[in-house]
């Protein structure tokens, strides 16, 4: 455990203040000035020069810069220039300046992006508020138009600058005490010793209700009863269990503060896309230990949430506030918490660290239909393909032309499919047993195996083209094929591993049971993630190239042999199409057809054909070997002449 550097101050005070932001008072508890910045098309900057005091703040804009300058802060002193994203076409950008005097926090939102100029520094005793507007600064071509203060219009014209004058007051007396007195929830300090822990009581800390527990030597754990806001039934209040391992062994006494928030509007994600997909339930519980950062507890904190019934089509997860990221952004993470569902109205969170905790609900689930059946089909197919690839590799190594170039290409594809089938068969087990640490490596290996398989399918296409259309040109050395098939796929995987947080445990949600998803090791393809970007630019690009080239090559080969006598035999025609499809991987293109009415049966067809690709490949070589023995002639087809004569047996 290491000292808490502002955790119990900065973030906690943000919530405590904002919780009562809707209360009444004679003084303005915050300041908001918005407008449209009319600028040029060159380099744009956000400049600020903020000093301590309570005087004048000037918000100005010109052709290239938006500026905030003045004396308004209690603790913050900051001066810098921030480069903004270029906008070659647009000449206007919306912006807002926000000031929260109680926290000494100031930030600017420009074109939807937040820029924090003064970070929260705890509750202030005296602060600068009640900002009143001064005289407008003339009319100009570039500047601020459609200016508003607290959503009240100031001017529709374009002005180069606006001035505001502040007044210094006692923030705690004006803001917090009024909110506490109006709530009716203030209680006296209580001292009670229970199970060697001292309950200091349910006290009204500045702007919030909290429970404070003092852990002494011999602390054996404790169940906390959180204070109930006015009008909330006791049975709807979250329950908290503190484990015995929470107390730092090197300290004789230490306090735990548990804060309960009934309104979670401040904790919702800042992104509109996030708000459309997910929602934080109204109860939020914050737990902190004074002057400590607590992580990796051997026994978890247990928090019981009581909520309205959640529809079965929506999944729910315990999440915690990610304090390592920008505190001005609301970021929730699932890591470190286990979700225990105790009914449609009760959820218990087991978490191994301290921060703020809540229940996240997926509002727009995208479940997979028939997931259980598809999982069984895929597992059985992968098991069959794994064994088949072992047999095929042995066969290719023992036949007469084991060192032939065609055989080397076939062997490379068989090895890649063996690795892909084996890893995919084991991915669910590894995800459930090993968790994120194991899946970080296993997911990368599975991704490599998939890209390697795609690469060898493309090599099969190129090799066939070489044999058919470049008869008198020597085929590339097998080492070149191996470098492309096994070396090239490693490049994007290594890059993604270096980026980090791409591979891990992912959940595949079933439409039949959204609360019990299938776990597997793969890429994190959640919205706005690096994994999703990599999936589109790497995986789908590989797949599109393989499928398109395979279909083109299949068409060219079949056009060359359709007029031959062998082709007129139904069995031979079927084996030609089926055998070459196994080599070229064209069946993977079924993934592009999973939409509309086709979505009912395409997933089944996709899983059956592609999970059994290794088995079908072995079957193809077995059939061709039988045909060769029955005809008494070589159907090996590894040379250019045999390919031209017998396209069916080409590259056997």
3D architecture notes:
The protein has 652 residues and is of the alpha+beta class. Helices cover 34% and strands 27% of the residues. It contains twelve helices and 28 strands. The chain has helices spanning 10-19, 171-183, 272-277, 371-398, 405-469, 478-487, 490-499, 530-561, 570-584, 602-611, 613-631, 640-645, and strands at 31-38, 45-52, 56-61, 65-73, 78-83, 92-100, 105-110, 113-118, 126-133, 143-149, 152-155, 161-170, 192-194, 197-205, 208-215, 222-225, 239-242, 254-261, 278-280, 284-289, 301-306, 316-321, 332-333, 337-341, 346-351, 356-362, 503-508, 518-523. Strands 13, 14, 15, 18, 19, 20, 22, 23 and 26 form a nine-stranded antiparallel β-sheet that branches. β13 (192-194) and β14 form a beta hairpin. The longest helix has 65 residues, at 405-469. The radius of gyration is 33 Å and the shape is globular. The model is unreliable at 1-26, 177-207, 270-276 and 633-652 (pLDDT under 50).
- Percent strand equals 25-35%
Mean pLDDT: 76
Secondary structure class reads alpha+beta
Low-confidence stretches: 1-26, 177-207, 270-276, 633-652
Radius of gyration, in angstroms, nearest whole number: 33 Å
Query: DSSP helix count?
Result: 12
3D shape: globular
Termini Cα gap:
64 Å
What's the total count of β strands? 28
State the helicity in percent bands.
Answer: 25-40%
- Biggest β-sheet description: 9 strands, antiparallel
């Amino acid at each position: 455990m290491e000292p808490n550097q502002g955790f119990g101050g900065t973030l906690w005070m943000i919530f405590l203040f904002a919780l009562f932001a809707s209360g009444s008072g004679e003084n303005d508890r915050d300041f908001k000035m918005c407008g449209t910045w009319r600028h040029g098309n060159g380099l744009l900057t956000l400049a600020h020069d903020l000093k301590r005091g309570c005087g004048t703040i000037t918000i100005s804009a010109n052709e290239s810069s938006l500026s905030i300058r003045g004396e308004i802060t209690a603790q913050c002193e900051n001066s810098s220039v921030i480069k903004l994203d270029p906008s070659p076409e647009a000449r206007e950008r919306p912006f807002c300046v926000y000031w929260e005097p109680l926290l000494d926090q100031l930030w600017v939102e420009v074109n939807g992006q937040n820029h924090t100029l003064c970070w929260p520094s705890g509750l202030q005793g005296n602060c600068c508020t009640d900002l009143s507007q001064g005289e407008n600064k003339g009319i100009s071509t570039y500047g601020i138009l459609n200016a508003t203060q607290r959503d009240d219009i100031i001017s529709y014209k374009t002005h180069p600058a606006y001035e505001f004058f502040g007044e210094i007051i006692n923030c705690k007396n004006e803001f917090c005490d009024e909110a506490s007195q109006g709530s009716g929830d203030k209680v006296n300090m209580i001292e009670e010793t229970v199970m060697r822990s001292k309950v200091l009581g349910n006290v009204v800390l500045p702007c919030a209700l909290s429970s404070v527990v003092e852990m002494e030597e011999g602390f054996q754990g404790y169940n906390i009863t959180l204070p109930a806001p006015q009008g909330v039934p006791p049975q709807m209040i979250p329950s908290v269990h503190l484990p015995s391992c929470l107390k730092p062994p090197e300290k004789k006494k230490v306090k735990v503060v548990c804060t309960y928030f009934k309104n979670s509007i401040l904790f919702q994600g800042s992104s509109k896309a996030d708000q459309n997909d997910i929602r934080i339930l109204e109860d939020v519980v914050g737990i902190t230990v004074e002057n400590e950062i607590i992580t990796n507890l051997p026994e978890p904190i247990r928090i019981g949430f009581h909520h309205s019934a959640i529809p079965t089509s929506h999944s729910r997860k315990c999440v915690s506030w990610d304090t390592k990221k920008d505190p001005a952004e609301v970021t929730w993470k699932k890591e470190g918490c286990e979700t225990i569902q105790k009914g449609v109205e009760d959820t218990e969170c087991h978490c191994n660290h301290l921060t703020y905790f809540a229940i996240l609900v997926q509002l727009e689930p995208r479940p997979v239909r028939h997931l259980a059946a598809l999982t069984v089909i895929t597992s059985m197919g992968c098991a069959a393909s794994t064994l088949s690839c072992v047999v095929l590799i042995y066969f290719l190594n023992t036949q007469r032309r084991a060192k032939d170039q065609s055989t080397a290409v076939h062997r490379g594809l068989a090895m890649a499919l063996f690795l892909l089938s084996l890893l995919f068969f084991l991915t669910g087990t590894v995800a459930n047993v090993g968790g994120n640490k194991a899946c970080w490596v296993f997911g990368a290996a599975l991704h490599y195996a998939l890209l390697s398989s795609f690469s060898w399918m493309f090599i099969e296409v190129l090799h066939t083209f070489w044999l058919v259309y470049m008869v008198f040109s020597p085929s590339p050395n097998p080492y070149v094929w191996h470098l492309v098939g096994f070396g090239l796929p490693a490049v994007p995987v290594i890059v993604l591993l270096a980026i980090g947080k791409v591979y891990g445990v992912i959940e595949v949600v079933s439409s039949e049971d959204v609360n019990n998803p299938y776990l597997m090791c793969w890429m994190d393809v959640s919205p706005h993630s690096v994994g999703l970007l990599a999936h589109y630019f790497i995986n789908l690009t590989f797949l599109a190239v393989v499928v398109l080239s395979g279909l083109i090559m299949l068409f060219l080969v079949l056009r060359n042999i359709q007029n031959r006598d062998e082709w007129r035999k139904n069995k031979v025609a079927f084996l030609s199409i089926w055998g070459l499809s196994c080599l070229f991987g064209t069946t993977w293109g079924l993934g592009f057809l999973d939409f509309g009415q086709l979505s009912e049966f395409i997933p089944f067809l996709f899983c059956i054909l592609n999970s059994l690709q290794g088995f079908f490949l072995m079957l193809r070589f077995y059939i061709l070997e039988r045909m060769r023995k029955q005809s008494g002639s070589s159907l090996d087809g590894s040379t250019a002449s045999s390919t031209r004569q017998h396209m069916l047996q080409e590259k056997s």
